[in-house]
Amino acid sequence: MALHVRGEEMRDGSIVVDADQGGLSTRSVYGNQVSMTVATREPGYHSIPHYHAIEQLTYVVSGQTWMFIGEHGFVARPGDFFRVPAGEAHWSWNTGDEPLVTFQCFSPILDPETNDGSIGLFDDGETPRIKDPGRNITPDDAQRLQELERRVMGEEYQAAR
To answer: DSSP secondary structure string, 47-73?
Structure first.
Protein backbone atom coordinates (compact mmCIF):
# COMPACT_ATOMS: atom_id res chain seq x y z
CA MET A 1 0.00 0.00 0.00
CA ALA A 2 1.00 3.63 -0.38
CA LEU A 3 -0.24 7.14 0.33
CA HIS A 4 -0.62 7.70 -3.42
CA VAL A 5 -2.02 5.75 -6.35
CA ARG A 6 -2.15 6.75 -10.00
CA GLY A 7 -5.56 6.58 -11.62
CA GLU A 8 -4.26 4.49 -14.49
CA GLU A 9 -3.05 1.88 -11.97
CA MET A 10 -6.58 1.41 -10.64
CA ARG A 11 -9.14 -0.94 -12.06
CA ASP A 12 -12.84 -0.28 -12.30
CA GLY A 13 -14.80 -1.83 -9.47
CA SER A 14 -18.29 -1.56 -8.11
CA ILE A 15 -20.10 -0.85 -4.86
CA VAL A 16 -22.35 -3.65 -3.71
CA VAL A 17 -25.84 -2.14 -3.95
CA ASP A 18 -28.95 -3.71 -5.42
CA ALA A 19 -30.14 -2.15 -8.66
CA ASP A 20 -33.29 -2.66 -10.72
CA GLN A 21 -31.38 -1.95 -13.91
CA GLY A 22 -28.23 -0.42 -15.36
CA GLY A 23 -24.54 -0.57 -14.61
CA LEU A 24 -22.36 1.12 -12.01
CA SER A 25 -18.57 1.32 -12.09
CA THR A 26 -16.37 2.90 -9.45
CA ARG A 27 -12.83 3.89 -8.57
CA SER A 28 -12.45 4.20 -4.82
CA VAL A 29 -9.82 4.98 -2.21
CA TYR A 30 -10.00 5.02 1.57
CA GLY A 31 -8.12 5.97 4.70
CA ASN A 32 -9.02 5.36 8.33
CA GLN A 33 -11.91 7.83 8.56
CA VAL A 34 -13.08 8.73 5.05
CA SER A 35 -13.45 7.07 1.67
CA MET A 36 -13.85 8.69 -1.75
CA THR A 37 -15.39 7.22 -4.86
CA VAL A 38 -15.66 8.36 -8.45
CA ALA A 39 -18.82 6.59 -9.59
CA THR A 40 -20.16 6.25 -13.12
CA ARG A 41 -23.79 5.20 -13.51
CA GLU A 42 -24.87 4.23 -17.01
CA PRO A 43 -28.07 5.61 -18.56
CA GLY A 44 -31.00 3.71 -17.06
CA TYR A 45 -29.16 2.89 -13.83
CA HIS A 46 -31.81 2.57 -11.11
CA SER A 47 -30.73 1.56 -7.63
CA ILE A 48 -33.22 0.37 -5.06
CA PRO A 49 -33.57 2.19 -1.73
CA HIS A 50 -30.70 1.45 0.63
CA TYR A 51 -29.03 3.05 3.63
CA HIS A 52 -25.78 2.94 5.55
CA ALA A 53 -24.78 4.14 9.01
CA ILE A 54 -22.32 6.60 7.46
CA GLU A 55 -22.71 10.09 6.01
CA GLN A 56 -22.32 10.63 2.26
CA LEU A 57 -21.47 13.84 0.40
CA THR A 58 -21.81 13.87 -3.39
CA TYR A 59 -20.76 16.24 -6.18
CA VAL A 60 -22.23 15.75 -9.68
CA VAL A 61 -19.52 16.04 -12.35
CA SER A 62 -21.55 15.23 -15.46
CA GLY A 63 -24.90 13.80 -16.46
CA GLN A 64 -27.98 14.12 -14.33
CA THR A 65 -30.11 11.86 -12.17
CA TRP A 66 -33.22 11.75 -10.11
CA MET A 67 -32.06 11.48 -6.50
CA PHE A 68 -34.31 10.35 -3.66
CA ILE A 69 -33.37 10.85 -0.01
CA GLY A 70 -35.95 9.78 2.55
CA GLU A 71 -39.22 11.43 1.52
CA HIS A 72 -37.52 13.95 -0.83
CA GLY A 73 -36.81 13.72 -4.56
CA PHE A 74 -34.94 16.10 -6.88
CA VAL A 75 -32.95 16.19 -10.11
CA ALA A 76 -29.20 16.48 -9.47
CA ARG A 77 -27.26 18.17 -12.29
CA PRO A 78 -23.57 18.98 -12.99
CA GLY A 79 -22.18 21.30 -10.33
CA ASP A 80 -24.74 20.22 -7.70
CA PHE A 81 -23.76 18.96 -4.27
CA PHE A 82 -25.97 16.92 -1.97
CA ARG A 83 -25.77 15.12 1.36
CA VAL A 84 -27.21 11.79 2.44
CA PRO A 85 -27.45 11.72 6.25
CA ALA A 86 -26.28 8.56 8.02
CA GLY A 87 -29.09 6.03 8.29
CA GLU A 88 -31.32 7.73 5.67
CA ALA A 89 -32.76 5.59 2.87
CA HIS A 90 -31.72 6.87 -0.57
CA TRP A 91 -31.52 5.78 -4.21
CA SER A 92 -31.09 7.20 -7.69
CA TRP A 93 -32.44 6.76 -11.20
CA ASN A 94 -30.43 7.99 -14.19
CA THR A 95 -33.24 8.72 -16.63
CA GLY A 96 -30.92 10.71 -18.90
CA ASP A 97 -29.19 9.50 -22.05
CA GLU A 98 -25.62 9.98 -20.82
CA PRO A 99 -23.63 8.47 -17.95
CA LEU A 100 -23.80 10.16 -14.57
CA VAL A 101 -20.36 10.79 -13.04
CA THR A 102 -20.11 11.76 -9.36
CA PHE A 103 -17.51 12.21 -6.63
CA GLN A 104 -18.75 10.69 -3.38
CA CYS A 105 -17.18 10.89 0.07
CA PHE A 106 -18.22 8.63 2.94
CA SER A 107 -17.42 9.08 6.62
CA PRO A 108 -16.67 6.82 8.35
CA ILE A 109 -15.57 4.82 5.34
CA LEU A 110 -17.68 2.64 3.08
CA ASP A 111 -16.61 -0.90 3.90
CA PRO A 112 -13.82 -1.89 1.45
CA GLU A 113 -15.17 -5.46 1.43
CA THR A 114 -18.38 -4.19 -0.21
CA ASN A 115 -16.56 -1.70 -2.44
CA ASP A 116 -14.86 -3.91 -5.03
CA GLY A 117 -11.51 -2.56 -6.25
CA SER A 118 -11.19 -0.01 -3.42
CA ILE A 119 -7.59 0.86 -2.53
CA GLY A 120 -6.38 1.79 0.95
CA LEU A 121 -4.02 4.77 1.00
CA PHE A 122 -1.68 3.85 3.83
CA ASP A 123 2.05 4.39 4.18
CA ASP A 124 4.40 1.41 4.07
CA GLY A 125 4.34 -0.17 7.50
CA GLU A 126 1.27 1.83 8.59
CA THR A 127 -1.41 -0.25 10.26
CA PRO A 128 -4.92 0.75 9.16
CA ARG A 129 -7.15 1.77 12.09
CA ILE A 130 -10.58 1.75 10.48
CA LYS A 131 -13.55 2.21 12.82
CA ASP A 132 -17.13 1.28 12.00
CA PRO A 133 -17.06 0.90 8.20
CA GLY A 134 -20.53 1.20 6.64
CA ARG A 135 -22.33 -1.34 4.49
CA ASN A 136 -25.30 -0.81 2.20
CA ILE A 137 -28.51 -2.23 3.67
CA THR A 138 -31.88 -2.55 1.93
CA PRO A 139 -34.66 -1.32 4.24
CA ASP A 140 -37.77 -3.42 4.86
CA ASP A 141 -39.96 -0.66 3.39
CA ALA A 142 -38.01 -0.26 0.12
CA GLN A 143 -41.08 -0.83 -2.02
CA ARG A 144 -43.05 1.86 -0.14
CA LEU A 145 -40.19 4.29 -0.61
CA GLN A 146 -40.10 3.65 -4.36
CA GLU A 147 -43.70 4.89 -4.58
CA LEU A 148 -42.14 8.31 -4.00
CA GLU A 149 -40.77 8.17 -7.54
CA ARG A 150 -44.23 8.17 -9.08
CA ARG A 151 -45.38 11.11 -6.93
CA VAL A 152 -42.29 13.29 -7.41
CA MET A 153 -41.39 12.53 -11.04
CA GLY A 154 -44.90 12.98 -12.44
CA GLU A 155 -45.09 12.42 -16.20
CA GLU A 156 -41.38 11.67 -16.43
CA TYR A 157 -41.97 8.51 -14.34
CA GLN A 158 -44.00 6.82 -17.08
CA ALA A 159 -41.65 7.98 -19.82
CA ALA A 160 -38.65 6.50 -17.96
CA ARG A 161 -40.31 3.11 -17.51
So the answer is: EPPBB-SSEEEEEEEES-EEEEETTEE
